[in-house]
Structure formats: structure tokens, C-alpha cells
UniProtKB/TrEMBL annotation:
Domain of life from the UniProt record: Eukaryota
Subcellular location: Cytoplasm
Ranges of residues in domain RLR CTR: 544-673
Lipid metabolism listed as a keyword: no
Origin organism lineage: Eukaryota, Metazoa, Chordata, Craniata, Vertebrata
Pfam families according to UniProt: Helicase_C, ResIII, RIG-I_C, RIG-I_C-RD
Listed GO CC annotations: cytoplasm
A single GO BP: negative regulation of RIG-I signaling pathway
GO molecular function, one term: double-stranded RNA binding
Record keywords: Antiviral defense, ATP-binding, Cytoplasm, Helicase, Hydrolase, Immunity, Innate immunity, Metal-binding, Nucleotide-binding, RNA-binding, Zinc
Protein name: RNA helicase
Catalytic reactions on record: ATP + H2O = ADP + phosphate + H(+)
Gene giving rise to this polypeptide: DHX58
Amino acid sequence: MADFGLYAYQEEVVQRALKGENVIIWLPTGGGKTRAAVYVAKKHLETTANAKVMVLVNKVHLVDQHYNKEFEPILGSRYQLAKVSGDSEEKDFFGKVVQSKDLIICTAQILYNAMINKEEFKHVELSDITLLIIDECHHTHKESVYNKIMRCYVEKKLLRQKPLPQILGLTASPGTGGKSTLDCAVEHVLQICANLDSVIVSTKNYVPELKKNVPKPMKTFDIVEKRGADPFGDRLKWIMKQIHEYMDVPPDFKLRECGTQEYEGDVMILEQRGVRENNRRLAQCAIHLREYNDALLINDTLRMMDAFRSLEEFYSTKAAKAFDGTDIFLVGLFNENQVELKNLATNVVYENPKMAKLESVLLNQFTPGVQSKGILFSKTRKSTHCLYDWVTKNTALQEAGVKADILTGAGNGNTHMTQNEQSNTIRRFRKGSLNLLISTSVAEEGLDIPECNLVVRYGLLTNEIAQQQASGRARARDSQYSVVAQAGGPELRREHINDFLEELTQKAIAKVQSMRDAEFYRKRIELQIEAVSSSKTSEDCKTEKKGLFAASNVKILCRSCFKAVASGSDVKLLENSHYVNINPDFKEFYRQGERVLLQKRFEDWEPGCTVICNNGNCNKDWGFEMKYKESNLLPNMAIKNFALETPVGRMTVKKWKDAPFMVEEFSFEEYCYNNMPDLFD
């Protein structure tokens, strides 16, 4: 394998895979898991009759990255390769692509869609594949798309249906599944092994070489004391108290401390309860309290002005939309306090001390004339934009030569990045025109980011897997991994817990690896049988829930003003993705808002304008219109913006799949016949 350029520890971990076994390769971030997978794929293609390799990834940007950086340079001259994602035209004839290529790299969703699609050109069977490589395979659990694919595999295996592909999983850590005892952590690792029908392998004989090639950064806890006074935060809490008194919190419900994630959960429950009980005052007050709580959380992590601006932005959309006395009170309360809040937010005496600590951490690493690269991890897209604004306006950081930009996940929203924007940002970072990425968790896992001198976790509460992957980004010699947190704060506690869970994961894997083969395989089969049985029970429950009511017996209400605007029977499922209202009378209940601009084009449809409730001054955003195959505009309804009136009472659901009635498939021909009769004259 020397001609291929594998390290000895990589050679060690691929041995069982080369013999055709199902294997999970466990190596740390930067340990070269993907390169090991390329080697296994190469040997498989060379030695297996009618070989068909498929590489699954869980994020769109990894399709191009694995194709361009790993598989195509080594295999492209000898084999036919293809890359397919949701943006690719090839997804529409994926079955044909699989037939004609030797190796396909795609998102897991593409394969799963093909497995359940019965059209000839689109359908793919697991038996069509001879080697299935699953990147970041620790995500193969619960209802993830990885696990849906592997559950099909396990079901066929238990029924002795062959052939089935060989499985090769890749992970930096399977984690403990949130468990804190060794026995439970072992059970979690065994469950991941069962889900992937694989053994887990790691280097035993070449640990020193691995440590040399993947050095651990120096970890520092950069602690700040709680600020002595916080008049801005106190004012926010005083306003929240006024809302508590006005909303009349039910006596059987106790709100927890303001400015916490627990409080956010409480007010979300109160909003749902207000909708169910037809209590608009309770529901609307809860929505506004969530915004104030969000401002408190921002105030705890970022600048006071960032918190103030988040509230100002929220209320700028509410000022002209007073539907009743509740809205008048809530908007008026903010307006009465707006000037005072702004004055407090601009008083530098009470600024968040975490910002000063973050500045000193960055200045320790970034100095003029020194080549440094760093990643600053933060929780939300909003916080990355606030931190970017702070960095670019901070004189000391600019004089030190910090050249920052934002890296967030791909998507269609205004704050999302396109795949090209992500690639361009990383390219600039690699070339040195940028030296600091301000990133959400998107940079923790998978992305091909150069070695960094500094990784900072700021205002984050994540599990041990995310922590390990973030730490693994600091790969340069003598690099630093900094945790900026308040003394005794939740981030600090979580970091220490994650350190413990990382050790626990290693012990759990060692224990699984030391099990006798017979015991391991028996346990794996037991867990597989249990998982398949549990899945069938869950599916039966979902089907039963779906059939709870006839669609025509469910009214759809605006979640803000509670006006009935549609029937469940008006809604149809378009292309297994979009829930559209086909009733032409529905347009009487909404007005068009701004035109929707998406960052990518779709083959059969294009967006129109947003759809907004026109009942008085309600102005609740419901979704957006779609123009499908030259049809009339179809309102695409987001269920989270509605309430459902059922024969047994009112309810709310987050996703359409949780609605208690069956939604029929959209028939374009039937729709045209009923609504566009001129086409059939």
C-alpha cells in the first residue's frame, strides 16, 4: 500500500474491509478516513465482478468535496465516476446513472428517494450496489436518512435476502448517545454497530504514528467573571414581568428563569396552549416573550446592541400589524422602552466581558507578520453575523491583520449560504486572503478546511461528538483550542461533561472491541431484530394517527388570528415535498407579500410571492406561492403557521407528517382538468 501513500495506521484499519467484512473505521478528525475509504473502493473495484461502489454523505457540499479531492484524482482515469446531489439533473434518472457508472457519490437522501421510487429510470435497489461507503456514519440512528437506508438493509439481511452490499462506515466518534455510564455507552456503540451491521475498528499497533500525524491542540479555558451590573438585561426582565402579569399565566404552569433555554421551551408550550384553548392573549404574549428571552441570550453572549437590534428588527415588522388589544399592548410596551433600552445598550461600562476576553484570545494568536489561521465557532447564523460585524469594526483586531468571513450552512433562506459561496469562502481561507472563519457547526464536520492554529468555541452547548470534531480542526503544530465562557456557566459545565464523555466513548469502544465474536454477533442480531420490530410498530402508529380523521373533517386555522381558512381536503402533497392548497377559493383569505427569491432553480416549479393572512391586520406569514408546470399559482402552506381544528379539539403540529389525517398526492392532470378547463377544449 506504500505506492498509494497510506500511513501504517490506515493500512491497519482497512484490513478487515479488504476481506469483505462490514466495518466502521474509527479515526480522529484529520486521521485520513476518506483516503482509507478510497483505497478500499479501489481494491473492491479491482477484485469484485460487476462492482458498484456508492459513497453516501449527509451534506450537499461533501458530494463535490469527496469527488474532487479524494475519489476522482485516484480513480477517475480508470473508472466511470458520478456525483449527484439535489442540485444535479442526474437525480431525475438516478437509476440509469447507477447502472452506467462504477462509483457514485451522492447525498443519502438521493439514494433513499431512489429506493422508494418505483419509476424505472429513478429506482435503485440495495442489491444494485456492491460496496456502500457511509461518511460520518455516527448519524446512522433513530429516523436519520442513513438509518432508513440501513434499516432496509437490516430487514433484507434478517430475511436472508441477497445479495447485499458490503458496508464501510467512517466516523471520528460514535459518541455515547447522551449516556453517562459505561454500560449505557457500550449499548450505544453496539446499537451503532447493529444499525450498520458492522464491526468497529481502530488502530492498535500504530497509535504513536497516529498521534504524530494528528496532534492534539493545547486546550485552554478562557474564563470571565459575571459582569457586576447588567442594567440592559435587568430592563428586559422588567418588561417580561409586565407581560407575565398582562398575559395571566395559568396557575398550573410555572415559568422557569428568564434568559435560559428552559424558559424558551416553557413559552413555546404556552404559545401552543394558547392556540389550543383559543386564548390569543396567551399565545401572542408567549411569542413576544420568546423574542425577549432570545435578546437575553444574545446579551449574555454578544454585544448589548446585538440584543437590542434583534428586538428592534422583530418589532419593526409588528408596528403596523396590531390585530387586537393584545398587539397594541405588546407593541406599545416595546415602544415605551425603546429609547431607554438603546441608551443602556450603548453604555460601554456594562458591555459583555466575554467580548473583551474573546478579543484577547484572538490577539494572542493573530499578530502582524505571523501566519495564523483560526475558526471561531458560534451557535446560530445570527450570532455569526453579529461576531463578523464586531470583528470587522474592532480596531485592535483589524490592526493585528484579522481577515474574517462567515461560514454557515447551505439553504434557501436569506442568511443561508449557497454551496458556491461556501466553496469560495473556504478557497479564500486556504489561500490566505482570509485567516478567520466565523462559523456555525457546519465547519465542525466533513468540510475540507486547512490546518488551523486556533479554534475557539464561543457560546456553545453541544455534545461530545461536535466538541471533538471542532477540536480536530486545530491541526497545526502547537495549535490552541480555546473555550471562552463565564465562570460556572453552562458552556463550561458542558465542556467538562464532554471531556468525560469523550473518555467514556473510548472505553466503550474498547469494551465492544474486546467482546468475543460470538457474543458480539449475538448482541448485534438482538438489537437488529428489536430495531426492525420497533420501526414497524412506529410506522403502524403513524399510519393509525394519519387515519384518525377524514381530511374534510379538519379545518385549518391561521395560527395568529384563529380564522378558519381552509379544509384538510384542500391540501395535496406535491412531489413528496410540498403541501399545496388546490382550492381556488383559498385566495380570498390571503394577500401576496414580497416576491420569494431562492438561490437555486428547480426543474418543474418556481416560487412566486409570500402568502399572508388578510384578516384585518393579522398579516401572519403562511408560506409562498409556487408556479408548477405552467399551472396557476399554488399556495405552498407551512403547517407551523396554522392550527388544526379537529373533531376532538384544536391542535398544532410542527410538520405535515404529524397531521392527524391523510394528505392525498397532487395530480397535475386532475388539477388542470378542474381548474384550467381551457386546456381540454
